[in-house]
Design goal:
Length: 258
């Protein structure tokens, strides 16, 4: 499906935000990020390969569950943008399938929770069946970057950014919830599932994935993996949601309310 994005004010349309466009350039991710960070393209290319290690160096060791929000909101700074950009560019084939999945289900009022650099929010905003995308992310640099990307791509009218779900400007219910590569970073992911169940419309779909594992060599220090946390998560998932089949061989799953 070709998704033609019209610029504000009725100007000429931007390039379609197709999956193929994402595979080609990440929706112009490199030039947009270099411009946002005010660095030369060569400097961006130098920093991307080490971005994960650079971000891990900020990690204070085992997460204090009471300081998770502070870490993602304040400590990571713009380093999170670089790390996420490297992940999206290096794992483009996988992310392309999650975009195809989103294209299959997203409609109406869409919540992108913990949306990072905005790949899914931007693609959702370009879908004609989507009325509005509500992007939520703790990191103010992420929010500012996604706002800049939306403006550049002519999507500012369909995409709004917020710090958290408590903001009264957000709608009480969403027709689609997208939460990818986020739940394993939360100190209480079971509670987050309960919030999603409260905020999902009766006929809505939630697209979720998770990876509760710090890695065989500790390569994912940002993830929570306590057995009791994981068990509470799966018990809540099974009580609140029913899985909806989709044909893509990826870790992301689709759910409706049980």
């Amino acid at each position: 499906m070709a998704l033609v994005v019209e610029r504000q004010g009725g100007a000429a349309p931007a390039s379609p935000l197709t999956v193929e466009r994402f595979l080609a350039d990440g929706f112009a991710l490199r030039p947009q990020l270099a411009s946002f960070l005010q660095i030369a393209p060569q400097e961006l290319e130098r920093r991307l390969p080490s971005s994960t290690d650079d971000l891990a160096a900020l990690h204070p060791g085992a997460f204090d569950p009471d300081r998770v929000e502070q870490f993602y909101e304040d400590a990571v700074g713009t380093g999170h943008l670089l790390e996420l950009a490297a992940w999206h560019l290096g794992s483009a084939d996988y992310i392309a399938d999650t975009l195809r999945l989103q294209q299959r289900f997203a409609a109406g009022q869409v919540l992108d929770f913990g949306g990072g650099i905005g790949s899914h929010a931007l693609a959702a905003a370009a879908l004609p069946q989507v009325e509005q995308v509500w992007f939520v992310d703790l990191n103010p640099h992420n929010r500012a970057f996604v706002e800049a990307r939306a403006a550049e791509l002519g999507l500012a009218a369909k995409l709004r950014c917020f710090r958290d779900l408590a903001d009264p400007a957000l709608p009480p219910r969403f027709d689609t919830i997208v939460c990818l590569d986020v739940l394993e970073h939360l100190s209480d992911p079971a509670r987050q599932l309960e919030v999603f169940a409260e905020r999902l419309s009766p006929a809505g779909i939630a697209l979720l994935n998770w990876y509760f594992f710090k890695g065989f060599q500790g390569e994912y220090p940002f993830h929570f993996d306590a057995p009791e946390l994981v068990e509470a998560f799966f018990r809540t998932l099974q009580s609140q949601f029913l899985e909806v089949f989709h044909p893509y061989l990826i870790t992301t799953r689709a759910y409706r309310l049980a």
